[in-house]
Amino acid sequence: MNFKGTCYIIMGGTSGMGLAAAVALNEHGADLVLVGKDEESCQSARTIIGEQPIIFSGDAIEPETILKAISLAKSEFGHINGLFHVAGGSGRKFGDGPLHEMSLEGWNKTLHLNLTALMLSNKAIINYFLETGQAGTILNMGSVLAYSPSPKYFVTHAYASAKAAIIGFSKSIAAYYADKNIRVNVIAPSLFETPMAQRAMQDDTILSFVKTKQPLDGGRPGKPDDIKNAVLLFLAPDSTFITGQVLSVDGGWAISEGQYE
Fold first, then answer.
1. Which of 54, 65, 183, 210 is deepest in the core (most CB within 10 A)?
2. Are 91 and 43 in contact (CB under 8 A)?
3. pTM of the complete model
4. In the prediction, which pLDDT does 145 show?
5. Which residues are catalytic?
6. Mean pLDDT value across residues 127-147
C-alpha cells in the first residue's frame, strides 16, 4: 500500500491501537497529525514514532481540539485524506456498569466520552471534505461489545450502548455522504492490551476466559499491532469502494462461546 502524499488525523493516536496505526501509516509514507489525551502520552509517541508527525495533547470532547488538528494538517501538509477516531474509554469510574446499578452520571459521561467526542471529530472532518470538495475517509473505533455481549466479566451497559450507537451513526453518515465519495467505516476490536483494559489484563480469571472466547493464535488478548492491517485497508487511498462496513478484529470473540471456570 502506498500512502505517500496522504495525510491523516488520528484522534487518540499517541497510545494503544491508535499509536500502532500511526506507526504503520508513518512507515507507509503518510503524513500524520496525532492527538493524545496528555503530554506524557504525546512524548512517549514522539520517542516511538519520531518527530515527523505533528503531535499535540487535547481533549477529544472539546470541539476546538479537532479544529486545531485540521488547521495544523492544512497548514503543514496542505490537505487531509482521512480521520481515524480512536479516542474513548471506560466509564466505570463515573458509574457505568449493570443497568440496575448504573448512575446517571455514569451513563452521561460514558456516552459523552465515547459517542459525543466521536461525533464532533466526524462532523468537523465532514465539513472539511464538503468545503474542499474532495473525497475522504473516516474510520471509527467501535467494540465487539456493541453486538456480542459478555455479561459475566464485561458488563458496562452505557459503554456497549455508546459503541452500538457508533455503528448506527457511522452507517447513517456513510449512506448520506456516499455520493460525495466520503467513506465511513468501523473497526470493532475485542479485548486488547491497551491502557483502558488494565482491569481485565490483571485478572487471571478473565484472561482464562479470554483464552476460549478469542481463541485465535493460542487464545490471547489482542496486541495493538493486530489492528494495523485493518486500519491500512480502510484508510488506503485505493480502497475507494468500501463504505458503511463494520469489521470485527476480535480473535474469534463474536463466534466463540467462551468457557467459564
1. 210
2. no
3. 0.96
4. 97
5. 159
6. 98
